[in-house]
Amino acid sequence: MSELKKLSKLFYNPKIGLINQNKLYEKSKLNNINITHKELKDFYESQPVNQVLKRITKNNKFNSFRASYINEIWQIDLLIYDRFKIDNYKYIFVV
Q1: pLDDT (0 to 100) of residue 53
Q2: 83 domain-assigned
Q3: Is residue 89 part of a domain?
Q4: Which of 20, 67, 74, 93 is at a distance of 20 to 30 A from 83, taking alpha carbons?
Q5: What pTM, to 2 d.p., does this model score?
Q6: Are 26 and 16 in contact (CB under 8 A)?
Q7: Which residues of the chain have pLDDT under 70?
């Protein structure tokens, strides 16, 4: 039996299967499957299960402001809690 078929059998084994690349490589070595890291990576990425469950990474772009001198840029966020207030004598409590 070819190495990729053995690897596929190991990967889809219900007791062991659907594990990450490093663990799959270790299990393949324990089961005497001679395969390189590159071949394992190609096999792993070609599996439909991993293509569906692959994490999507988003590139976050942030705009930043740099002040040239002191007190050049000021920013404040205001929060108004009028609808959450509880009137108690002279004080207003926000819970």
Answers
A1: 64
A2: no
A3: no
A4: 74
A5: 0.51
A6: no
A7: 1, 17, 51-54, 80-95
